[in-house]
Amino acid sequence: MQYRYIVLLASLLAATPLTVQAAPHHRPRANRPAHASPQSGLGYSFEEFSRRMELSSQRQEEFDKAHPGDQYIAERCRFGIRANLQAAGADTNDPAYAELLSTADQACINYIIRGRLAGLFKHIHEHTNLDGADAAKPGQIKLSLPATEHFPFLKSAAQQGNTVEFTFNDIIPQLSGRKLVATFGIEKGYSDNQLAFSGSDQTTVPHELLLYNILPPSARHADADTDTDTDGDNTTD
User: Fold this and answer.
1) Tens-digit pLDDT profile for residues 99-118
2) Among residues 64, 68, 70, which one has the least CA distance to residue 168?
3) Which sequence spans correspond to the domains of the chain?
4) What is the C-alpha R_g of the chain?
């Protein structure tokens, strides 16, 4: 499952500063006993590290089986990150540990939810027939909208002209009672026509859960202003 990779990445990012901070001062090789492991500074050998990570992966699989479904995204992220940090030997007594955990948890949760929302648009792209579509009249295109049985967190999906609106149930708490609104047009691709979606200010989904192209225009303008302040380029795609 894809989220396991972001769990591991978030874990390693959280563990890195702790590992550096807790690392012992460098000692000359001459002071190291001949039988010492090359990884002794970490407290255990590479083989032991691999064994710990394998056990962590097994624990993650068991937890996943016991907590299926999108309602447990946050729980799976939190469990996986802590299991990986424990396997990596992170110092849980470090004052920054709790803050780093919180950052890693949120990054993991946001990443997975963002992927779920992107999946709605991927479904439309893959199943909508654009043969003979008139680029000047996108509202006449009938989109193939995702069904709630395939996306359990989705409450409804509706099209009106060249606007599509998704509403969400409470399976994913961060989306509960929210709506995602986007307009669309037709662009010429390399070999055929393609749908192009843009965000709407009617969207109430938190911005950190949205891909850039479906951010509300006001949020994209704010990003462009930030770019102008930093590098003088306020262009957007």
Assistant:
1) 888 899 999 999 999 999 99
2) 70
3) 3-111, 128-231
4) 23
